[in-house]
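Retro notes - structure team

What went well: the batch runner handled both jobs without manual restarts.
What didn't: labels got mixed up in the shared folder, which is why I'm recording both outputs here explicitly, each with its sequence directly above its tokens.

Job 1
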Amino acid sequence: MNIRQPKMITDILQNNLDNVLQEILTPQKIQDNQINVPEVNIYEDDNSYQIKVVMPGVDKKDISLSLDNNIIEIFGKSNHEINKKLTTLRTEINFEDFKRRLAIPKDSDHQSISANLINGILEITIKKKQKIKPKNIIVK
């Protein structure tokens, strides 16, 4: 015997699932001031950390970086103009101003931070502090 759920319940479940998926797939914004949050990739090797930030349409003169208490803040201003004569059919590329704050590891050398903008990707390199090797002390 097959028991069928009323169509209304399945529709409600499908709607809720669609809403959850939409929230997950929609780019996140900082809610209080609606500033765009750019996507980042973070890498590490034995000597350094590297952060890559996607910044389409942003000129290097419009990017600022600051460091305070192991938090690096990346801010960018986009000068992309939207042609008012065009009707938007689909928008996936975000050209809004943005801000991103990232905690950096405690073993970061703050004096070694460098940044380059290459083809719309901001590459931030942070060297690691040199570890002090244990030293044997001879007793005389």
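Job 2
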Amino acid sequence: MRFFAKTERFVKYNPGATLTELANELETDKGTAKELSWSEAWPEHKTMGYTRTYEKYMHMHRNSPIKFLEMGICDKRFPFASQKMWLSYFENIDLYGMDNFWGDYLDNRLADVEQLNFFGSNFIYADQGNFCDWSELKAVIPNDFDFIVEDGSHWPNHMIVSIWQCKDLLKSGGYYFMEDLQNPVTSRGKFRYDNALLTEEILMWQHTKTLNSVFLNPEQNRQLDENFELVEVVLDESAVNYLAVFRKK
């Protein structure tokens, strides 16, 4: 794990735009635009419309001091677009971005890190599936985040371990968002990862109010139940992926 503190805030607050408008302008797949510059090269990848859900929980905090962590910020189709979106949306944001550059060596990506720091993002080079990285980053970043967005590897064990780790980082009343949970009916096995089993576990959690994930041991399951409330699970308009919203108790 390596931590790089922001050096500037080049990306400025834009009070005249909604989160969805910013997402579409910056070409992140979290928005709603149908045709973007990367659409032709990746015709099967559609925008998710997640910003409509995000804005429900975030709009009242646009002008308040907030702390925000996003995991998975370096999609090669639209690198760092979501980090620029958050900086444009919130007036007073302390933003942290976490990625391992698809396993690339840090020395090969120092220019990217410098750019992120210049935009206004504190950057964490870490692997969300690495327990040692989690222990190290908890020693250097805040433990009272208002919002945490997980859009990382999409491997189910990484996804559920990440929210379990973040029980120590999210403030009471804060929100955790888990992106791209595959719809078991329409997209199981469609991608190189398959997290549809985790989706089924979370949908069951929504009904039973008790988590029983095969990716965690019984004590970890109990700790997630104890620390988080599952607020809603939203299916994107293409019926491919869900966005799960959790609140820290």
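One thing worth noting from job 2: The first strand starts at residue 2 and ends at 4.
We'll revisit the folder naming next retro.
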